[in-house]
Amino acid sequence: MKINELIETNLDIDILGVTDDSREVSNGFLFVATKGFRVDHFNYINDAISKGCVCVVTDRSCELSVPNIVVTDVNNAYLEICRKFYNVSVNNFSYIGITGTDGKTTTATIIRNILNTIKPTAYMGTNGVDFLDKHLKSNNTTPCARDLYSFLGEIQKTNCKDIVMEVSSEALLHDRIHDLSFDVIGYTNITEDHLNVHGTLENYIECKKSLINHLKSDGICILNGDDAYCKSLTTNCVTYGMNNDNDCVISNVKEMPNLTIFNLTYMGNYYSIKSPFSGTYNVYNVTLAFLVCLHYGLAPEYIVDAISKLGVVKGRRENINFGQNFEIILDYAHTCHGIESIINSVKDKKKIVVTGCAGGREKSKRRKIGEFLIKNCDTCIFTMDDPRYESVDEIIDDMVGTDTDYIRIIDRKEAIYKAFDLADSNTCVFILGKGRDEYMAIEDKKLPYSDYEVICSYFE
Fold first, then answer.
1. Are strands 259-266 and 379-382 parallel, antiparallel or unpaired?
2. Parallel, antiparallel, or unpaired for β 379-382 and 407-408?
3. How confident is the model over 367-377, as pLDDT tens digits?
4. For 164-184, b where at least 16 C-beta lie within 10 A, e where not — what string?
5. Residues 140-163, buried b or exposed e (16+ Cβ, 10 A)?
6. What is the model's pTM?
7. SS3 367
8. Which CATH architecture best describes the domain 3-85?
9. Are 170 and 210 in contact (CB under 8 A)?
10. Where are the domains of the chain?
11. CATH architecture for residues 318-459
12. In this predicted model, what pLDDT tens digit does every residue of 371-419 receive, in sequence order?
């Protein structure tokens, strides 16, 4: 496109791509020097120019070897540029937004898979972007501006008009969903997370709360009424939970191998749910999915039947079976609440856990996680998990404190192999923190790595 088709200017330059990340620039690109909370991309203009960018958009004047367009709000200008470059009309879609500290991926995937049996529905979240038979990789739970509009542009070419989207707190903080309006919003729970970004729990809650500002006037918000922070978000919402003061009450939960049966009472109606997902926390996820689909217009009987036929959500309490005589659970759990929930969901078995904590994230949770795991698991193997610029040894030191009843193996593949070597027929091995991620974040690089591929290689 021409630059004057993307932004008001007298310049007439061909633009082959747009980005605010100088590492992605190539010949013919427009570089937009956005401002983040931790980085000012203005500092990377010369790097972008050296890689072939032909024009720069900034919020301040400067002497450059390429044209510089100065705007008042560079971040909003970037959103508008991306929308125009990918020729996206956001109003062509109907959006369901799922947010919360834990459970977003499971809940959003369940909703998408149920709706997709009725009409083409897209999923956008931690596990990438799925629509029709296409799968696209995404670097963020909620894509950054350029990727978001790129994905919407691809979906727009199909007959898929409904999108189930995971909405992260960082996406809300950085205003990535600036011009999206949601038909339904669902909250799973709110526990302490991402305080390295938000600073305080209060800021984090307020950020989560802001998603409601994107709800259509006739839209509906559904939230976990048993969660104190969720319940404080707003009034005039539909609530669900096990407490009797909720609009939708969960009762008679019975857990069996690979099956959970429970009842829902909602608006005077009674539903018996057979869910293929284990763990009480998944009862909440399935209930939220049920209510979202119900308010999206599906018949309750159809939803109940569809839930009973659901398949596994990759990387979310995923049972890996290669014919071994012990259980393997692969999961993305990395918060205190998420880890406690999944460990407590397995009873009457010896528990071996392989996990770590990410570098460049809140340090306050590390000791809480380590202390809980050492107390509640038979064997803890602490290892690498996206260390970024931190020392893996120092991260593990933060987790274990003065405890000595653990195994330290820096190499994650070696750690997983060790766990399997220690397992017997009465063992459940938990591999937590990365789920189906396909990278290990070391310094500023994302190097190829997959827990799932490591598991496969052990049995091969």
1. unpaired
2. parallel
3. 999 999 999 99
4. bbbbbbbbbbbebbbebbbbb
5. bbbbbbbbbbbbbbbbbeeebebb
6. 0.88
7. helix
8. 3-Layer(aba) Sandwich (3.40)
9. no
10. 3-85, 90-308, 318-459
11. Alpha-Beta Complex (3.90)
12. 999 999 999 999 999 999 999 999 999 999 999 999 999 999 999 999 9
